Amino acid sequence: MSDAPAPPHQEEDAMQDIGTTWSGSHAFVARELRSPHSVEELQEVVAASPRLRALGTRHSFNDIADTEGTLVSVQALPERFELDDAAGTVTVSGGSTYGRVAARLGETRWALANMGSLPHISVAGACATGTHGSGVTHRSLSSVVSGLEVVTADGAVQRWTREDCPDFSGRVLALGALGIVTAVTLDLVPDFEVRQDVWFDLPWSSLLEHLEEILSCAYSVSVMPSWHDPEIAGKVWLKSRTDVWDPALDPSRWGARWARTADGERAEGQNPNQTEQGGVPGPWWQRLPHFRLDANPSRGDEIQTEYFVERHRGPEALRALLAVADRFADLVLVSELRTVAADGLWLSPAYRQESLGIHLTWRNDPAAVLDVLPVVEEALAPFSPRPHWGKWFTLRGDQIQEQIARLEDFRRLAERTDPNRVFRNGYLERTLGLPTAPA
Fold first, then answer.
1. Using CA atoms, how far apart are residues 274 and 373, in angstroms rounded to an integer?
2. What residues pair up with 283 in beta bridges, in sequence order?
3. How far apart are CA 169 and CA 357, in angstroms?
4. Which DSSP string corresponds to 137-178?
5. What is the pLDDT, as a whole number, of residue 12?
6. pTM, whole model, 2 decimals?
7. Eight-state DSSP code of residue 93
8. pLDDT tens figures, 275-308
9. What topology is assigned to 193-394 in CATH?
10. pLDDT in tens, 357-387
11. Any idea which architecture 81-191 has in CATH?
């Protein structure tokens, strides 16, 4: 069975039109969408539903959040923001976006250590799918979760914490298989300032030879390679803490150049929707994301793919993709290389692996993308690629499952937590082998 995103299909006329994911890359087939305004109302919906899934900000690109039953939006639940100065944590509602949480933290002495490229994504959804920022010392966003409040299949509210649950590492990044997350507790760090600088015209030869040095030269680094040009890889985006900024850093040693800037103007190549570049210091929450919260993120009309490989094998993996780039480059809108530090979360793409994420944003042409994904996956096959759970891939379930060391542990956890398989869907069955039929 192919693990491509499930194509939209027609249901009987009575089915509610729920629409699509954020980018239009998947049309939901659920029979209804509920938007409870309280946790108590949510409990009633869950207890009465034989099959359902949680829906956040719709920023996944495949059918991971879909169901043939009821979709439950967490966006209407009451907002929470409970700062614990003594513990250095904040508890927020699961449907809160990172942008809203970060802006409120910006009024305190605390910060999130890292953020994803889009601040528009929900905290619960991002943590459930292993979403990440970049930086050789930064783990996925899920890794700073120290507590969860969840409505389980029987309608009960449960509190799971790092201290109290021996299997907490299987509960944080769970792809929505264990319940509906209503609140998340996040570890914080003292606040800090960041500057963003961009290099242009980095040669492929330098990137491949010095990949580790380049990826390690700032707090967070993103490389935006071009697959059309076999000589020039392209742009490098540095996010540096101002307290450790090294003014002696010179990209010319790798054949790149600083982006040009002029007083009162945006830095060279900066999209107006992006957070400020050009080396202008600013609060962490206004620099770590690529895009501003008050602007449209990315391109919108797109499909995304991302694969994770061992970071030390990154140059080999990139060479393998360059060898077949002529077969997929015309479909690529933008590409990005980011790093994710190893963690211990059972379903994490970075589980016990220092990882390089190879991201591709495709034109929204589903048939063409499905044709080229096997080309990309075949080129990466020698490097055991792990997919981003919320993006498109065509890897078979057995190819994915053989890489998940704690898969059997997670299957047992899912059966204990949701014995009636209320939160199962076709995606979980295809990718993890979790049956949807009642036990």
1. 28
2. 193
3. 21
4. T---GGGGEEEEEEE-TTS-EEEEETTT-TTHHHHSS-TT-S
5. 37
6. 0.93
7. E
8. 999 999 999 999 999 998 887 766 668 999 999 9
9. Alpha-Beta Plaits (3.30.70)
10. 999 999 999 999 999 999 999 999 999 999 9
11. 2-Layer Sandwich (3.30)
